[in-house]
Structures are given as structure tokens and as C-alpha cells.
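WARN no homologs supplied; continuing
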Amino acid sequence: MAQDSVALSCDYQFWMQKLSVWDQASTLETQQDTCLHLAQFQEFLRKMYEALKEMDSNTVIERFPTIGQLLAKACWNPFILAYDESQKILIWCLCCLINKEPQNSGQSKLNSWIQGVLSHILSALRFDKEVALFTQGLGYAPIDYYPGLLKNMVLSLASELRENHLSGFNTQRRMAPERVASLSRVCVPLITLTDVDPLVEALLICHGREPQEILQPEFFEAVNEAILLKKISLPMSAVVCLWLRHLPSLEKAMLHLFEKLISGERNCLRRIECFIKDSSLPQAACHPAIFRIVDEMFRCALLETDGAPEIIATIQVFTQCFVEALEKESKQLRFALKTYFPYTSPSLAMVLLQDPQDIPRGHWLQTLKHISELLREAVEDQTHGSRGGPFESWFLFIHFGGWAEMVAEQLLMSAAEPPTALLWLLAFYYGPRDGRQQRAQTMMAHTAEITHEIIGFLDQSLYRWNRLGIESPRSEKLARELLKELRTQV
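OK structure emitted
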């Protein structure tokens, strides 16, 4: 083992000198010398890679301080790049130098430099005399050769991956898992290159028959980061595959959305809607598995903040965007409602999914009474209701804030005695503090605690009631009357 190490060090010095000579002279003699040594140099690169992959990046730099210079000189030599598998092995060696978690600015700069060299290998537009002679001999103008080569190579690999995805159990036509994994590793520094998009998409969509994920975690993380920072644009089908195959990426996308909502100035509903639509999460949530994870993160945020109005508003805007995306994707649901809302009655979910504004005004009261009956049954009769208790019913109800607004508007417009069903709905909307442990009667016993919240809710909805001629003092008076009625009826 020690002898191999000494031999590699000797070879390293020899090839470092050779590359310096080849780099400094561009005569016919140096070109001939380069071509005579290509096979030997490729073998050295292969041994170098075998050694590098066993070390971490810090050890590599410590043992071979000039490794960056050696690889850079090789990467800028068109004869080396054009020979057999030298280009591929050079990429492998460069990837060994990448710091997965850079600890300082020096390591970050090294990562950026490596990304630049890798980008050059596949798509550089810098041509010297040797490249010009090489490409002209093939009948190409230098300005057209490398971009065309990159495009053709990417399309060829993407086509091969698609065929791999469709080949089923025909093992003779399938790409080896090791090669797919290697491709994903090579793509990491190249994610933001537009020409590489088809390959990235093909890798995300291609599903093998292996029991474990074969794409590298670094690949998923790099793609997700580029999507969140708007450095690349992929079809929604590819984004869905990314978030289905790599849960940390979906979680990071949600946290990124929360950070934008929290770090910005006070957000109006329209601004929240813009952030949510821009995140692509509502569109991706058309797949039930993604919706369930996103909804679970909303649930955690709701519990952690004790039902903060800002979180409830965000949930309601997200649900509205999700329903719109669902309608655009298909007029008929591809998946049963039960897959999106597994802990609640499908009939209740179906009613709530309707847009309140699509219901004729004359049917508002009837529909609200029906919702109240379904919710009350779910809360009070667990044999026919939801498996998750009152909290699950309340959590479903707050997704659809338009119904609560309709309840308040109906109560304000009611000239006769307010219907008990509507009073129960409004109290249920504001009442529960911990629905997992409290029954409906317990939740309704604390109406005094929610006075301020209901008045605030009515005041926030004034823009809808102005057309009815209702002024602020009257709305507050009516709100207090409703609370008095709640205490006696619920």
C-alpha cells in the first residue's frame, strides 16, 4: 500500500511537469507528444481518482496541494478532453475535491472554482488554436462545436434515461444503477446551466426498480436549492418527482415559504397569495402525498402558535390556491377526497370544497345549516365522525374561511332570531383551544374568551358588508348581541 502511494506521488510529479510543458507550448511537437501520452495519462487519472475517492477534501488538499493546478491544466487541454474516458474521469476527480459542507470562505471559493471548471468541460466557449484546428478538422466552426456537443450529449443521456424508465423489467435495455447515480453526482455543479435542464428533468422522472434511492442526496439538494432561488425552471412533473423522492427538499420548500412570510413586512392577503403561488407548492399538492405533508406542517405551525390568526390566514389562502390548481389540473378529481383529508367525512370535505360564492344567495342558509349538521355530528358523535376528534373537524373547517365569513354575514343580515346552527358554527370556528382534548360543549363554554376575536373578525370583513349599508358601530353592536345569544343557546 505504501509502495502504491510512493509510486502515485512520483507519477504525480511526472505528469505535473508534462502538463506544464504542454500548456506553455503549442507547437506541432508538443501536440504529438500529448497524443503519444494520452493513454498513459488517462491511466494515471484513473489511479488518481481511486486514491482521491478514499479521502475527504481536506486530506486531498493536504496530500496534493497542487491538485487543482494539475486538473485545471488537464481540463483546458482539448486533446485530453477528447480522448476516450479522460473527460469523465476528470469530472470524477473534480467532484472528489468538493466540500459538501464548506466551513470557511476558502472552501466555498474552492467549490465555486470547481463548478467553473466543470462548467468549462461541458460548455465553455473559450477556444484556443488547438481547439480551432481540432473542430475545423471535423467540419465545425469553433463557435458552434462545444455548445452543440453539450446539447447533443445531454439530449442523448436524457433519451437514454427515458428509455430506462419505460423499459420495465427488460434488464438488457436498462441503464445500470451505478451509472444513473454517477450521472446525478456529475450534475451537481452543473445544475444551473440551462443546457443541462433536460438531463436534470430526466433524472428526476426516471424511477428504477431498485429498493433504495439511487440518485445522490447532493443532487436533490442542489436541484431544490436552484428551484427555490429561481435559478432553474423545471416542469411541474419534475418538481413533484423531486419532492416525492426527497422529503427533506419538500420540507425545505415549506420552510422557505414560511421564512418569506415571516421575514417580510406585514403581509396582506394578496401578498400572501403571491408568495404561495410562486412557491409551486399548491400545484404540487395536487398529489395527495405532497398535500398531506404540507398540511401536516401547517398543522404543526398552527399548534405551535396556538392558532395564530396569521397562520390560519395562510392556511386559508393556500387551500384556495390548492383548490384552483386542482380544478385546472382536471375537471374530475384524479384522487378520492379521502386521500387528501383522511380523518374527516368525505361528504363534509366535498361540501366545504365548494366556493361559497358559487352558491346562489337564496341557498346560503340551507347550505350553512347542512355544514353545521355535518360538523356537529363529527364532533359530538365519534362513531360516525372523524377518527381524529374535534380538532380534526375544526382543522378542516378553518381551511375554508369563506364559509365562516358567510356565517357572520348571514347573522348580521338576519332580521329574525339567529338560527342556532349558525351560532354553533361561528362559536366552533373561534372556540376550540385544544380540540384533541375538549368536546364541543367544553369549547362552547368559553365564549367570553373569544369576544375580541369575533369582533375583530367582523371588523375585518367590513369591506364585504359596506355594500349592505352596515357601518362599523352597528357591526360591533351586532357582534356583541351575537355573543350574548351564544352564551344562552350553546
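The CA atoms of residues 453 and 463 lie 17 Å apart.
OK
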